[in-house]
Structures are given as C-alpha cells and as structure tokens.
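Entry for the shared binder. Reason: the reviewer on the internal report wants the predicted structure included alongside the sequence.
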Amino acid sequence: MSNETPMMRQYKSAKKRYPDSILFFRLGDFYEMFFEDAKLASKVLGIALTSRNKSDKNPVPLCGVPFHSAEPYLAKLLERGHKVAICEQVEDPRYAKGVVERRVTRVLTPGAILDSENLESRSNNYIASVYCNSGSYALAYADISTGEFKTTMLSSIDDLKSEISSIEPKEILLQEDANDNVALKPLFQSGWNPLITSIENWMWDHGRSKEILKDFLSVPSLDGFGLETRKESVVACGVLLNYLKETQMDFMPPLSEPVYFENTDYLLIDESTKRNLEITKTIRGDTGYGSLISVLDETLTPMGGRLLKQWLNYPLISLDEIGNRHDSVEELIKNVGKRRELNFLLKEISDIERLIGRICTTAAKPRDLGALRDSSPYISKIKELIGGFKSPLLSDFALDIDDYADVYELLVRSLVDSPPGTTRDGGIIGDGYSKELDELRGIRRDGKRWISELERKERESTGINSLKVGFNKVFGYYIEVTKTNIDQVPERYTRKQTLANGERYITSELKEYEEKILTAESRILEMESKLFEEIRCLVANNSERIRKTSQLIAVLDVLNSLAEISDKYGYVRPEVDESFDLEIKDGRHPVVERMDLEAGFVSNNITMDGGENRFLVITGPNMAGKSTVIRQAALTVLMAQMGCFVPASKAKIGIVDRIFTRVGASDNLSMGQSTFMVEMVETAYILRYATERSIVILDEIGRGTSTFDGMSIAWAVAEYLNDVGCRTLFATHYHELSQLALMADGMKNYNVLVKEEGDSIVFLRKLVPGASSNSYGIEVAKIAGVPERIIKSAKNILYNLEKNQSKIGDIDQEQIPLFSQTEEDKKSDPESEILDELKDIDPNSLTPIEALNVLFDLKNKMKG
C-alpha cells in the first residue's frame, strides 16, 4: 500500500463500494479500467489490454475508452448483462489541491438506462422486483426511460412466470438467499436471459419499504393507491425504488405513481402460448418478420410501437373498453383523408415520452430539447385534426392533448435551430435570448475583423507584405514573419516560436487582445452551459403534462395503425359479447396470408359455442393445415380483444378470459426436461387453469411417447377439458380419437380435406365436418423427399400392422387393440366374451333365420 499512488487508492476505495460493477474511472479525457475490470472489459469490448507501472514485478492491467465517445462501449457492456459504475471528476482539475476529487455519480445497469443510444426504441426497458412470501408473489416493475411504474400480486408461480414473460425485464431484483429464489431463478433465465440482482435480506422489510414508498409519493397513507393492505406489493415497490435511487443518484428521473392492477383485468396469455402463437417474436426468437406484431405494426412513433406491444401482451376483457377501441378504429377507417394526414403528422413526432424523461435529469442533451420543441407544432395540428371525430376515445383526445405551447415558445426563443449533441462546445443558445451572451459573442465575432485590421496595420508599419496574424490552440495568437524578412522585424516584437521557414512573434497589444478573446470564449461556454441548465429545469417542471400527451399520442398512433392494417387487408369489425360463441366466417391467419403462397391462402369457417359445439376434434394428415386453422382462431380472439379488426368476412366472439396453446415439440435441456416432459408440463398447466371462458388450442398432444401411451393421454385430456366446458380446438393425427365425438356431448368431428390421386395426395386446406379415416403419414414422408425404398418398406410394415401382426427383424409384435383388456379382466367382464363371439361369426354364412337367432342369443347374454 505504501507504494500506491493517491489516485490508485482513490480508485480502490470507489471499487470497494461497487464490487459487482465495472468501474469507469475518469482520468482526463478517458474512462480507465484496472485489474479484473480491465481484463473483462477488454474482452467484451474488443479493446487493447495494457498495463500501468510496467517496470514493476506486478504491473496493473489497464484499458480505457474515450470520455467523449463512451456510449457505444457502455451499450455493449450493458447488452452483455454487466453493470457499470461511472466515477466522475467532480472537481475542476485547475483548482484541485492534490488528487482531483472523484465519486461515482450513477450506476448503469441493463434495467436502468436513459440514453436513447442504449435502448430499443419500440420496446420498453423494464426492471422488475419480485417478492415471495408464503406462496404469495408480488411483482413491481418500472421503465425509468418512460416513467411507467406498476405492481401486482399473484397467487401462483405459474402466473408470476407468465407476467414476467409479458414484460421481459432486462433486470430482476430478488431477495438474497430466499428459499423461493432457488425455484425462481431458472424460470427467469430463459429466452431473454435477464440480469438477476440479489438484494440483501434486510432490505425486504415491509415497514422500511412502506416509508420509502410514502416518501416517494409524499403521502401519509397508501390507501389512495390500493396498496395499504397489499403488503407484498409494498415491499416489491419499496425495494425497486430504493435500488433505482441508489444506482441513478443525481440522474434519477421522475416515475409515475405506482399503478396496482390484477392480472385478471386482462385476457391472460401464458409464456408458452405467446411463444406458440408467435405474438411478439417467432418460435426461433426473431422479433421481425413472421410474428403477429410484425404484420400489425404500422405505428409511426416509438411510443406507439411500445404501446402496441403492450396491447398485444395485455388484451382487454372489458366489453366497454373493447367497444371503444373498435369504435375508434372504425371511424379512422371511414375517414381516409384524415387518416392520411394523421400519418404525415405522426411521422414528425419524436419520442417525447423518453425525451422528457432524460430532460428531467442532468443526462439531457441540447438535441433532446430541440426534438421536443420541433414536435410541438405537429401535436397542435393533430389536436385540431381529430377535433371533429365522434367516437369516445378520439373525441376525448382532442380535449386532452396538450401541445405545450408555452414550453414550445420558450425553446424557440432560447435554442439555435439545430442544437448540438453535447454541451461541451457550446453553440446551444440562440441570439437574442441573453443580452450578456450576445455581448460576449460580439467580442468573439469582432475579433476576426480586429485581427484583419491588425494584420493590415503591421504590414504597413513594418513594410513586410507577407506578414500574417494567426492562431492555434497551443500557442494562441501570433505574428508570423518569413526568414527573409526577419531583419525588418521591429524591437517591440517578442519572439514566441521558431519555425523552419520563419519566426512567430507576439506584441503587448496582441497579448492583451488574446486574453480578452479567450476570456470571452471561456465565459461563453460557461454561460451557455448555465443557461441550458436553467432552460432544462423549466421544461422539466412540465414533465407530467408532456408525458400525458405522449401517452395519448401513443394510443392514437396504435389505433391509427390498426385502422391502416384493417383497411389495407380487408379485416372486419368483430362482434364481441358475453356469450360463449366463437363464430368465424372465412377466417384467415394474419401472418400466413401475407406470405407469398403459390396456391393462395384458403380461408375457413369455425363455429363454436358453450353447448354442442364447444369441443372440435380436428383430424387430418400433417401439412394439411390443421395447425394454421386452430392458431388463426386463437389469434382472431386475441386481435378482437386487443381492439383490432380481424381477418375474416364476419366474426362473433364470446369474451375469453385466457388463451392456452400446446403445440409443437421442444425440450428444455437447461432444466432437465425432455420434449415429452415439456409437453406434459404445459398440458398440466392448461388443465389446472382452464375455465369455461377459456380458449384451448391443442395440437398433436401425446405424440412424444409411444402410440398407445400418447393416444391414452390425449383421450383423457380431451375428456377432462370437455367436462370443464372451455372452447377447445383439438387437432390430432390420431384419427382413432374421432370416436370421442361419438361418445360425449359437446364434441364434434372435423377434418381438413385431402384429395387422393393414385399414390399421392393433394392438400385442400379446407376444414369440413366429419372425421378423417387416415393419417397419410407415409404420403407426407414421400412429399418431404424420403427415399422411395423407405416409402415402400414403410407401406409393407403399415400393412402388417393394420392386420394386427407385424414382423420387424426377428421379432413378432402383435398390435394390442386400443383400450385392450387382460385375460383376467375378460373373466370378470361378460361383455368381453360376447365380443369374442361376434369376432368369430361369419355373417355371409348365416341364413336370415340363423342370423336372427344369433342376435337374439347375444341380446339375452347381454341382459344376463
């Protein structure tokens, strides 16, 4: 320690306080990293690793990035899930006595980012806090870039997982060493893989959290926020707020009041269903083409893009709210001219929701204020444009949208037309805003004329026509004379610098003016920085009204996008009511129909209710289109309840509380789950939570195990769901399961048509009543390109299996009939004996009288 410099001791002291963060230590124009931080950062950032005190036996590893362009490096570290503590120089080096004072001014984490360069413009950047207490789960989450702050309580870990999957937080705070966390961590470390931050146990105290929350809200009680009796939510909110304050420090932006909500306020969609229906990303994890959001998103503002994602994750269940959204979409569709003008205006509006968040902190940039200013005139025109609309939402917007004209006027007066990205070099404040600043700028402008005039005078007085007056940042102002004219230099000139071809001089007059000019330049920068901070604070005082306007603009943008899509692709307004009906005429899959299909998309009808048509058993071969039909039904429900029109010629939807899907084959090796285990886990979840108001989509359930195991499970699951009474679309290649519809009320058989042409089949992709009698698996294999030799062999094996006798290799395998009985079972069941007699009868060899006698005899045995 005795050999350490004061600066290195200062570094170690700061690092000790933030051991889980990479410390960006400000040294002049660089952020430096040392020791293990340097080794890690050099690998992640791809920058050179060097060392300090190379002559020592143990040189200190070192790497650094430029202070003025650190954002891309920070973004990369945060993207990889690292925290970064920013240790700034908080003292002017010119006035420092000894080592410059430094302190950590904020900690950047993946869940707490303000800089637009580090954020996805069309996705929220949530940080979440999860508190578990005796089987009850509380979730609080916030997006500091938009101010959103919400909390809820959940009764099961399954619901918690579903809620977490909806918001996909970049960071999750969990209680250190809590028993529940052993089960929680693996659930969250999948898909988007958030950073898990452990918070010490003592901080999860209800009394402490309550005081933090009351202090944040400046209230004596939490009753008005629905939190007084919800202790777990109070703890989750308090821990989250405290963490944000500790990491953001001087950069903490204002958050909205916490909004408590129940997950039952919305149509619930679990993580598996979101993945299977490819709502916001494809099964492969792509966020672009192929997902539902990719075909619905024609929003024109970043706020609108984020809100559309929220609407997809949280469809409504309130008939009034759904109706209001449909009314707005319908009115926008009818007013084509206004909609086109609205498109033009929305394109010109910046991300004012995130802009005002940054403006409320010292992280704001001049360009942020400029973008906020430039959006205001377009908001004024939007307010005027929608004034004539009649639907409740749109007419209310016309009254509630605030174009913040007073803020606009301030920014027009104070800022230059194109503000710079930083305050470092000035050029922020426009002429006319500050008299003192204008005077200083006058001195700077007059300097050019003064220099030109000085140069003319010196040439005349010395007779040196090549004499020049110049300036550089190192030596300041100077008079330059070539070597051939040095003998004409007057004594009042003082040599300043020798060049290869001449000399540079200074005079007392030039020295005096240099000090005046440089002082003016320094004062200009200082004054611009001061004025900018004053303007920023004035604008920040209006943050609540600007943020409210940004939210209204976002809603308007989403409604306009839904109207554009509905009009462009022929969607219709669905009828949504309290019935149990699901009637879709000429329904289409919103994503598949937009693909370049050679034969075009084939629409289909679906008719369901809460009675005789609540459970549809859909058979047919793979590739026939079963999955598309059942998925499009679920997506139609989701779109209708989020407020969109639907891809059909007509639709009636009885309100749905939850959508469940179990489709496809996937494993979860990280949690030790096989494909079949994943299938059963997801199926179990559906069976636990499905209600008569739910829509259940099951596709090929039971195929992950042996034929009879799988068929038995599928049969039992179908019977159970039918008893629950939920509307179910049950697609299967087990055509034997069509017997279900003959045995239970509420079930109906449907199949997807296939046309047989010799040894091949043609998929007609049309859903019709009735059961399929064949799975056509071998024909599908042939289409897929399986070699002909294997196809022929498979046909022979199938023929033998269908005769209940197969010979594969040297082993004879007798196929056991579905739901077969043991010999002991048969003895205790007289019906088995009768069935055996029936099998032995040859109807063609019996006379009519003999046949009647046999029938009479069997009937008597049945009665006995």
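Summary line for the report: Residues 508-540 form the longest helix (33 residues).
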